[in-house]
Amino acid sequence: MLRSTLYEAASSLLNRVKPGKGAGLQAWARALKARTSHKKAVVALARKLAVLMHAIWTNGSTFQPKEAYLRRAVKAQTQIGEWVRLLLERKPSRLVSVALANKTARIAWAILAKGETYRSA
Asked: Residue 54, Cα to own-chain centre: how many angstroms?
């Protein structure tokens, strides 16, 4: 039952909902539909919705697209927040979000590789 509900929600999001602000999932699914087939795009979108909902339920958090993540990073009074602010002055937000994800991944890798705990600067 949940599978069919997710499929129906994904199909509606892909076909019936008008694109608007914050429609990153919809844009991703439409690009996938252009490369593959409609059915594969709907199934992939349903799976992505399931993963998002599971993460929200297990963390008890709310859905926040990457733009909200950037706004939160900009407001932070940290070295990374300052780095993001300076980068946003020169580069588009999509590029900055990718750069921030890469920086976060590099920090996580360094922590795991060295076996240390995270020390915020």
From this structure: 14
